[in-house]
Write a structure and sequence with these properties.
With 437 residues, the protein is of the alpha/beta class. It contains 14 helices and 17 strands.
Length: 437
Amino acid sequence: MNPVNIGLMGLGTVGGGTFNVLARNAKEITRRVGREINVTHVAAREYNPDSLGSLEGIKITDDAYQVVNDPDVDIVVELIGGYEPARDLVLKAIANGKHVVTANKALIAKHGNEIFAAAHDKGVMVAFEAAVAGGIPIIKAIREGLAANQIEWIAGIINGTGNFILTEMRDKGRDFADVLKEAQELGYAEADPTFDVEGIDAAHKLAILASIAFGIPLQFDAVFTEGISRITREDVSYAEELGYRIKHLGITRRTDKGIEMRVHPTLIPERRLIANVDGVMNAVLVQGDAVGPTLYYGAGAGAEPTASAVVADIVDVARVLTVDPENRVPHLAFQTDAMTDTRVLGMDDVETAYYLRLKASDQPGVLADVTRILGDQQISIEAIIQKEPPEGATDVPIIMLTHTVTERSMNDAISRIEALAAITDEVVRIRVESLGS
């Protein structure tokens, strides 16, 4: 059979890794596909030739549109990132009848509905395994390996930067700002770390996971997002004392009321496997009705781990180039006409347990006032820790774990608690999930 020609857009970290993996494992890939996979076109404004294999015989340009418009390219691999010009390039490639592979989670989360509709109309594939959790094949696992199941919920550590920061805070008792600075020096966090530490990167990925799990349109704007910048080393220590660890989780769950989609710091029982995923590693826990809980663990970023997923997508596309489009695996797991408009819950309607940390004046009756307010909102308390005030201080830290309640009730209770004269600072609230089957 004729070779499959690849047009590679972007030779940065992931693009360079993809180029090298394709070259190094060319024979093995050919054995798997039944035909050669050749990179014939590359678009890159900057690249380091010393970090790449031979570029001999490859058309190199700084204009990505030359790649998507070249009739000799069979599969366009978009590794530029961002919303634009990636969106326009992908849509142009689809319009030209080319298949697309991308690692761009922001593009898929924000514009995936438009892109997949265009691909369906043209009978081409858009593959995006590398968009979520780097080298972990989580999309394929949910979309294909767990196709027999009704997915009940997914909880994932899907941003390595945030996980590294929380791990260092726990293991070494360090402050958030201190660890963030180190993460930037190590290259784990960008100069502007907002996407990582405020949960936007994880929200992009969670929107994709929710869509393929529950057969709903991609709805990035509906994901509740809260970052980790307010987590203190005291919170990490108190969580440990209570038998929990704090992780920055993306959670999506099917309920009778609708679909939850939320990213926020979360207390997890320390005995859970996912609570013990440390450093920059990623992990995704999936609960299916037939299989029960399954955990997927691995490198969520990096040149070759992400390239592993990109090349796997290229292999998948190459294998089915001649297959009738109607018989291919659907982009978002469910047939296009079977997608549903199931309601996505607002955060007020989500039910979960809570960790609360209060700072109160050291005087009689304060705890009674707080518990009365919680009782008025039908919020029951599972555990309380009241610490001695530091020497010379007049404020006492109070830590509480509650049972499950709606976010709306907790918001009302926190507003009333903060209005008490004896409460000297904002109440810190971290959600708690047992993640049991």
